[in-house]
Amino acid sequence: MALIQLRDICLDFPVYGFRTDSLKLAVLNKISTWTTRRPWFPSDGIKIVRALQNISFELNDGDRLGVVGSNGSGKTTLLYMLNRSFVPSSGSLIVDGSVGSMLNLNCGIDPNMTGRENIRFRLKISRITRKHWAAIEEDVVEFADLGHFIDMPLRIYSSGMMARLLFAMATAIRRDILLMDEWLSVGDADFSRKASARIDGYAKESSILVLASHDTGMVSRVCNKCLRLDQGNQIMFGETEDVLR
Is 5 left (phi over 0), alpha (psi -120 to 50) or beta? Predict the structure, then answer.
């Protein structure tokens, strides 16, 4: 069983290099509504920006959460926190289950290694037992469909070829919890349809899906729950139709 539980989560980032005596900053602090919603706190030349504030929700097996909001609302930051890349400043966070993320597909690759060597390297750092390596490697090679380029260095790949390989690698290993930042569209039209079908299957096999997207139609189709964020604040969490309406 998988579980994601957040209780009164806040996440702060230190920002260095701001002068506390800046006239421009003083004026902006007076007139900007943004700074009243996401306050800056001076402390020995360091300022703190609150990226997430008072976030509380719970997801269980079978839940599909769509995270919506405008640019800068905190959607991607929330996903990185669920991926354990960021540690909450306060509150309680429980993520129970193996996590697969499609946030930064470039993580863990070497452009000087061949496509096949990168697949094997990704398997090593993913803690997959060796008995599964051959099947996963075959799946990635077949899905990416790069022909003889699979045994050539990534540095000579086109952007489309790179996207094919990275997408195939990211979706080859099933996890209990799947985190996605936008619905990925990679390669040409044919590959995009192929990728969409693959990710649909991945989402159905995972216990919990968390999808950040601007596409409310996609969220309505895929997700049974929805979270709306605005400038790091939780505006509403509940059934998808209720939140989107």
Answer: beta
